[in-house]
Model the fold of this input.
Amino acid sequence: MSPVYHKIEAAGNGVGGCSGPVPIPRLARARPGWTYFVPGGLGVTTDTSRSGALGDLDGDGDLDALFGNAGTFLSGHGFLGGQNLYFMNNGQGLFIDRTKHVLPEVLDPTTDAEFGDVDGDGLLDIVVGNSGALERVLIQSDHP
Done:
């Protein structure tokens, strides 16, 4: 069975910067066929989250969240770089910040972050695209 992953096309600003369990954001309003959430449950940061993806990184059957963080924007100079963020879904409506346990502690100017099974072992890996810096491929050898 192939690993499951989904791309978040518009992650926006202000995601991350918290620790401990995070409740799924409350329902804000809905149009037919869509559910909108207020992104208050994942904390606030002044960095710029440029990309997001959902994938079952820990193999427990629910979707976890990955955010590519470019850091602070410098007018005319690009991004300073920021810590990418990973939140594990505990399957009961809580996302737990597992960034320090899964991702390297580096400040990359990330503009795209994706899940994918790069090495074909059935485990999701992480591919990170950076602006003006080397890309990173994080190969998972065991579930976090």
Observations:
- The CA atoms of residues 27 and 34 lie 11 Å apart.
- The chain is about 5% helix and 35% strand.
- The longest strand covers residues 48-55.
